C-alpha cells in the first residue's frame, strides 16, 4: 500500500495545472485514475473526491479541498470573492462566508 498525503495531492494538482497546463477535465481524469489504483491510499480521500468533482464547476482545487475538510464547521471563511460566488451558486455546505478586510 502506498500512502498519498493531502499535501502531495495539492502539489500534484498544481503541477498538472501549472506545469503541464492541463484543464479541469484532464486533471479530474488524472485524479480519478489514481484514486482507482487499488494500492494507493489518499489521505482524506473523500475530500479529494469532492474537490475533483467540483473542478468542472470552476472551483480552485485547493479551495474546495479546504472546504471539504471543513465539513464539521459552521462555515468556511475566505477572502476570495470568486470562491464565495461559486459556493453560493452550487450551495456548498457548510456555507462560505466572506471575511471583511
Care to describe what's here?
The chain is mainly alpha-helical and 101 residues long. The chain has helices spanning 6-19, 24-35, 45-54, 61-68, 81-90, and strands spanning 2-4, 40-42, 76-78, 96-98. The strands form 2 sheets. The protein has a two-stranded parallel sheet with strand order 1-2. It is globular, with a radius of gyration of 14 Å.
Please report which band the strand proportion falls in: under 5%, 5-15%, 15-25%, 25-35%, 35-45% or over 45%: 5-15%
List SSEs in N-to-C order.
EHHEHHEHE
Across the major sheet, the strand order is 1-2
The largest sheet, given as strand count, sense and whether it forms a barrel, is: 2 strands, parallel
State the oligomer. single chain
| Overall radius of gyration | 14 Å
Q: Which term fits the overall shape?
A: globular
Structural class: mainly alpha
- Whole-Å distance between the termini? 45 Å
Helix content: 40-55%
Contiguous runs where pLDDT drops below 50 for at least 5 residues: none
**Overall mean confidence score, pLDDT:** 94
Short overview:
The chain has helices at residues 6-19, 24-35, 45-54, 61-68, 81-90, and strands spanning 2-4, 40-42, 76-78, 96-98. It is mainly α and 101 residues long.
Question: What features would you highlight for this structure?
Answer:
single chain, 101 residues, mainly alpha, two-stranded parallel sheet, 5 helices
Amino acid at each position: 500500500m502506498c500512502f498519498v498525503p493531502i499535501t502531495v495531492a495539492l502539489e500534484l494538482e498544481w503541477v498538472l495545472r501549472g506545469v503541464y497546463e492541463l484543464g479541469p477535465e484532464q486533471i479530474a481524469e488524472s485524479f480519478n485514475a489514481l484514486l482507482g489504483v487499488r494500492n494507493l491510499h489518499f489521505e482524506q480521500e473523500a475530500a479529494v473526491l469532492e474537490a475533483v468533482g467540483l473542478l468542472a464547476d470552476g472551483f480552485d482545487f485547493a479551495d474546495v479541498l479546504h472546504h471539504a475538510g471543513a465539513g464539521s464547521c459552521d462555515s468556511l471563511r475566505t477572502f476570495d470573492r470568486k470562491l464565495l460566488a461559486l459556493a453560493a451558486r452550487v450551495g456548498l455546505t457548510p456555507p462560505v462566508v466572506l471575511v471583511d478586510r
